[in-house]
Write a structure and sequence with these properties.
Blueprint lengths: L23 H21 L11 E10 L4 E12 L2 E12 L6 E8 L18 H6 L3 E6 L14 H6 L10 H16 L5 E11 L1 H12 L5 E5 L17 H7 L22 H6 L5 E7 L7 H17 L22 E6 L7 H11 L7
Parallel strand pairs: 4-5, 4-6, 6-7, 7-8, 8-9
Antiparallel strand pairs: 1-2, 2-3, 3-5
Length: 368
């Protein structure tokens, strides 16, 4: 059993045998792979495939939007596996007036509508015009084209293509959505308009959980943004208020691997906690956002995860979130490699949140 810190949480810088992790080398070669495997086998499930050998992309359409301020590409991702052929679409919005290549935000879209209509100027979920004006590209896909967001759907989507035999460690739906983010990044590697070294993955709520898992698995993302992701996302599990493992695995068992249910009534036996998920993104950057009325997600424990991920960033000579005191609403912390803000209001993704994300990304050495 690993030693625990003063808050009763597993210490990310102590190995299972009690050995301290004292250098970036020991983190990268010893502790990080170990923690990553625990999250794979005990929480999100193991992806059965990385980049498929037969992955291809098709630009279905290109059109000017936003009165000529942007170009929208509709791109199809195609792949094959043991179960046959599969694919999904995503939209990519590129500013027409900018130095190329440009930094980009990839948004995980999980709402009923696509959330990619650039004429919807008031969309908080993906304010394309706002993002374009700041000099960024914006991409979005709908999760239901990848893996349907419902129980009993493992015989459809990417699961049907790649699952040959499911077991207690098999990937859940969140892991499939994270996998899709990496396939969009594969496309970015073919598009000279995108700066591959300046790409952020963004998710809200369940999408925020997937974004964090994507950022842990795929080190190509320079910035990982989680908005109101709560239980099994950015919030520390131990001592959490609101939604807990028992509730989330009861309502959404398909999001995770089967093993995660084992900890529904004995959270302290879980060999990892969510501050370690954030730590797996180091030395890249992370931004976590909470909302005052979102007690189900537990803003205090979301901030606590940022605090306790900090020592791993410090191992790389970086500052973490920069404070052990939770900030007041609308007082963002953005000086370190872990950004955080608490917004007044409910569980939602708003233009204010996006402004905070972009202000963080604008910092020298970040995405700009």
């Amino acid at each position: 059993m690993r030693f625990k810190n003063t808050d009763g949480l597993p210490d990310p810088l102590v190995s299972d045998t009690g050995e301290p992790i004292v250098s970036p080398k020991s983190w990268n070669e010893q502790q990080r792979p170990h923690l990553l495997e625990l999250f794979r086998t005990q929480v999100y499930g193991k992806m059965p495939v990385g980049r498929p050998d037969n992955l291809t992309f098709e630009i279905k359409s290109t059109a000017g939007v936003l009165e000529g301020k942007a170009v929208c590409k509709q791109i199809a991702v195609h792949f094959e596996g043991p179960g046959g052929k599969g694919g999904f679409l995503f939209h990519l919005f590129l500013p027409t007036v900018s130095d190329k290549p440009v930094p980009a935000f990839l948004c995980i879209g999980h709402r009923d509508r696509s959330d990619s209509d650039p004429t919807d100027q008031d969309s908080g979920f993906l304010p394309v015009s706002r993002i374009i004006e700041r000099g960024y590209a914006a991409a979005v896909f709908n999760v239901n084209q990848v893996a349907p967001d419902r129980n009993g759907a493992f015989e459809t989507g990417v699961h049907a293509v790649f699952d040959t035999h499911r077991n207690a460690q098999s990937w859940g739906t969140l892991s499939a959505w994270a996998w899709a983010c990496s396939r969009v990044m594969d496309y970015f590697e073919t598009d000279a308009d995108i700066d591959l070294h300046r790409v952020a993955v963004v998710g809200h709520s369940r999408g925020g959980k997937a974004a964090l898992w994507c950022g842990a698995e795929d080190t190509r993302f320079a910035l990982v943004i989680s908005n109101d992701s709560g239980c099994s996302g950015a919030a520390v599990t131990r001592g959490k208020l609101g939604e807990q493992i028992a509730g989330i695995t009861g309502a959404f068992p398909y999001w995770f691997c089967e093993n995660y249910k084992l900890y529904a009534d004995n959270t302290d036996d879980l060999p990892v906690d969510q501050h370690e998920l954030i730590a797996l993104i180091a030395p890249r950057s992370v931004y976590v956002a909470s909302a005052t009325e979102d007690t189900w997600s537990d803003p205090e424990n979301e901030f606590l995860a940022c605090v306790h991920a900090g020592p791993v960033f410090q191992l790389f000579g970086l500052n973490g979130v920069g404070s052990t005191h939770m900030p007041e609403p609308e007082k963002p912390l953005r000086e370190g490699s872990i950004g955080y803000h608490l917004r007044t209001g409910r569980h939602d993704l708003t233009p204010y949140d996006w402004d905070c994300f972009m202000n963080f990304a604008d910092k020298p050495g970040m995405l700009k």
